Amino acid sequence: MLSALRLFLLCAYSALASLTGLFLCLLHPFNPENTRRCARLFALPSQRFLGIRVDADIEELNKPDQACVIVANHQSNYDLFVLGGVVPPRTVSLGKKSLKWIPLFGQLYWLAGNVLLDRGNAIRAKQAMLTTTEALRDRQVSIWVFPEGTRNAGTELLPFKKGAFQMAIAAGAPIVPVCVSRYTELLDLNRPESVRVKVRALPAIATTGLTLDDMPALMERCRARMSTVIDELSAETAAALPSAAGH
């Protein structure tokens, strides 16, 4: 019963947030601040509906030095609500072209200035990558990417795809890893207690002077660092569960 109520509230609020976000984006279409505003609009109230409590350590995300490529682990469709409150200023994300056809949300995602990738069309995908590289280098816009390319369902990190790292090297932009504790198995919408989710931004990884020959080692270094921290955060949240405290 509680699960049905939470999902009803989430759906109703998401429709309202989409309409509100569309209105805001129509006033300033493709403004790089739109994504942050809309992400917070969706996430903060929705965390209350879902019973999610986010503990965020994101100082590394808010350093004003330069634009960066942000890479985060991707667990479920609830990531929007978990991570929406930590999106830094002047940040857009990369998403699949299919998102555009989701009623209201897809049009909002596009108008907010996010980049839609047509992975089935190599020429268009390459052009989108060139556009985001230019945004990183010349417009001081950061790019948020889920480098696994799909949801991992709260398991170990999937292999990373190259796109985020190609962009970072081409633009000479640092990579900031964002790690989220595993929460999909802990999230029970019928349970009244909130689920604690930890988010931590790691120190930036410099790409200045790197070439594409350095990319495999860069990807492995980033993935290994993220995997270690995700394990640590997940162990901390598991230890804080009431059942764990009782043993």
UniProtKB/TrEMBL annotation:
This is 1-acyl-sn-glycerol-3-phosphate acyltransferase. Pathway: Lipid metabolism; Phospholipid metabolism; CDP-diacylglycerol biosynthesis; CDP-diacylglycerol from sn-glycerol 3-phosphate: step 2/3. Pfam families: Acyltransferase (PF01553). Belongs to the 1-acyl-sn-glycerol-3-phosphate acyltransferase family. GO terms for cellular component: plasma membrane. The keyword Lipid biosynthesis applies. InterPro entries: AGP_acyltrans (IPR004552), Plipid/glycerol_acylTrfase (IPR002123). It comes from Pseudomonas flexibilis. It catalyses: a 1-acyl-sn-glycero-3-phosphate + an acyl-CoA = a 1,2-diacyl-sn-glycero-3-phosphate + CoA. The keyword Transferase applies. One of its GO terms (biological process) is phosphatidic acid biosynthetic process. One of its GO terms (molecular function) is 1-acylglycerol-3-phosphate O-acyltransferase activity. Transmembrane segments: none annotated. It comes from the Bacteria. The HXXXXD motif is essential for acyltransferase activity and may constitute the binding site for the phosphate moiety of the glycerol-3-phosphate. Keywords: Acyltransferase, Lipid biosynthesis, Lipid metabolism, Phospholipid biosynthesis, Phospholipid metabolism, Transferase. Residues 68-183 form the Phospholipid/glycerol acyltransferase domain. Its EC number is 2.3.1.51.
